[in-house]
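Per your request, structure below.
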């Protein structure tokens, strides 16, 4: 006879996500996970597996619920310049949102790369590639529609945006004010699409 779960799995996963996001993989203990998830260790293992398996589920949840907002904002923008602005503005929303620890779980996890096995590294790499490829696709579509010059290097711009995102996350964590980051966004969006 299988046992039914008497807890909200999504809420528990979100709680684990916020803790990993705030403290990182290596600094997060199972005791802390028990506390924030409101579960006993056996329930965590039964529902999610060990710490590494839980972390991988958290990463996938983050991609599906947080990172997707970057891609949606990119795709919903009305111009190539606004698409770049929108994806960069997601850094602002993410960092300065009081319900999040600040920064980005993916970027922070990449920085503690030595803590992760191949499976976790693959999820982290796929997150960066997903965003990178979405930027390229958006710009290539804009190029086909004549919204940007044909000689614009979409791949190089995607690299710049990825570097700006990681740099802005670092700057935000270091205490740079929101207004300074917004200036950086506006300048970058205009400069990157010029040929």
């Amino acid at each position: 006879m299988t046992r039914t779960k008497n807890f909200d799995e999504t809420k528990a996963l979100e709680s684990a996500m916020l803790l990993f996001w705030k403290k990182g993989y290596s600094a997060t203990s199972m005791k802390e996970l028990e506390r924030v998830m409101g579960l006993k260790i056996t329930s965590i293992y039964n529902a999610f597996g060990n710490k590494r398996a839980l972390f991988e589920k958290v990463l996938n949840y983050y991609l599906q619920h947080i990172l997707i907002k970057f891609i949606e904002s990119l795709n919903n923008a009305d111009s190539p310049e606004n698409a770049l602005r929108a994806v960069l503005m997601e850094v602002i929303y993410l960092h300065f949102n009081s319900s999040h620890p600040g920064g980005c779980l993916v970027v922070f996890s990449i920085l503690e790369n030595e803590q992760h096995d191949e499976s976790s590294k693959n999820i982290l790499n796929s997150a960066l590639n997903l965003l990178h490829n979405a930027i390229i696709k958006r710009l290539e579509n804009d190029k086909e529609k004549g919204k940007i010059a044909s000689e614009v290097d979409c791949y190089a711009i995607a690299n710049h945006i990825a570097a700006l995102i990681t740099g802005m996350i670092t700057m935000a964590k270091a205490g740079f004010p929101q207004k300074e980051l917004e200036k950086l966004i506006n300048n970058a969006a205009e400069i990157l699409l010029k040929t």
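The longest helix spans residues 118-144.

Regards,
D.
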